[in-house]
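Contributing new records

If you add data, match the layout below exactly. Sequence lines come first and carry their own label; structure lines follow with theirs. Keep one chain per record. Anything else will be rejected by the validation script.
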Amino acid sequence: MKNLSEVTQKMIFVIAALAGLICLGGLVFFRSIEAFYFANGVVLGAALNVLKVIMLEGMVRKLGASAESYRVHKVYLQIALRFILTAGVLLIGVFVPFVNLVGVVAGIFTLPISGFAMKFFPDAQ
């Protein structure tokens, strides 16, 4: 994580903290083996979000370094890849019996919540 920017590191930390809180909430709510399945889904969704944040930072770095060589279709291709990854993780949540779909969706929602929470870190601009 040395080559990641400070903002990316903070977003990854917030995503992990939110995923942990959601897992604890699932443990309190389910109180059975279903809590483990819910936690599997949350971890899967949060891992997807960490991957998407790292991919986004790489794209921004390449755009900032040389905008001429990094074509627009490559940006669209990476955006499509992020959507395909999200669809794949959601399909895993649907078809794999030990992964809860609600947990996957909750894990995926950690990204927009962490983006909103970044405004509370004034030094991360």
